[in-house]
């Protein structure tokens, strides 16, 4: 599903080594927490997965695609196999809930018929069928993040990457968001969650990959935060 083979990333403009000799495998259908303090290399690892950055050396293989060899014109097509959920939601404020989901489908060439069928379905999966025609500013923060999850699901991705998805939410709502991501994972979608939320990581007992100083320092199958880690 996802493989990093001896991946190193050095930023040319600063000569900073963000990641060094990363070797990592994530199987299809796994749920993985990615943890690490700011500057540890966690964000760079995510950007390499989404092809926002290119590795300095090594190989990244995702869904049998060698991401390190993608040409610029191929990257948009590759990204259609991914779903992204962000801390700040990134919804289109002038579009309704269902229009936000529809837009994500339109940009990858979905037909109107496909959109009419799929958009209500993914909204139902996150419990927002009754708010399909609301604008984002009419929703709570938790509801906006659920729209973002529906949008990420719209094109039936193999992999969903959630970057601090609960960072702007209170603990109760954060728990609900993680339940939706866990349900999506149970349907077979691989989920990677980058987070600083210690309580969620400890409660869910999923695989935990800890990054520090540009290296993977810990990879536990059913882990949590270590007592001596401060992320």
Topology (SSEs and partners):
Blueprint lengths: L1 E10 L4 E11 L4 E5 L6 H8 L7 E6 L2 E2 L8 H5 L2 E5 L10 H10 L5 H14 L15 H13 L5 E5 L7 H16 L3 E5 L3 H7 L2 E6 L2 E6 L11
Helix pairs in contact: 3-4, 3-5, 4-5, 5-6
Helical fraction: 25-40%
* Binned strand content: 25-35%
Q: What's the architecture of the largest domain in CATH terms?
A: 3-Layer(aba) Sandwich
Q: Specify the CATH class of the largest domain.
A: Alpha Beta
Name the CATH superfamily classification of the largest domain. Answer: P-loop containing nucleotide triphosphate hydrolases
- Terminal Cα separation, in Å? 27 Å
What does the average pLDDT come to? 92
- The secondary-structure element order is EEEHEEHEHHHEHEHEE
Question: How many H/I helices?
Answer: 7
Uncertain residue ranges:
none
Polypeptide structure, described:
With 231 residues, the protein is of the alpha/beta class. It folds into two domains: 1-81 and 158-231, Rossmann fold, CATH 3.40.50.300; 93-156, no CATH class. It has seven helices and ten strands. The chain has helices at residues 42-49, 75-79, 97-106, 112-125, 141-153, 171-186, 198-204, and strands spanning 2-11, 16-26, 31-35, 57-62, 65-66, 82-86, 159-163, 190-194, 207-212, 215-220. The strands form two sheets. A six-stranded mixed sheet has the order 6-7-8-3-9-10, with helices on both faces. A hairpin with a 4-residue loop joins strand 1 (2-11) and strand 2 (16-26). Helix 3 (97-106) crosses helix 4 (112-125) and helix 4 packs across helix 5. The chain is globular. The model has no long low-confidence stretch (mean pLDDT 92).
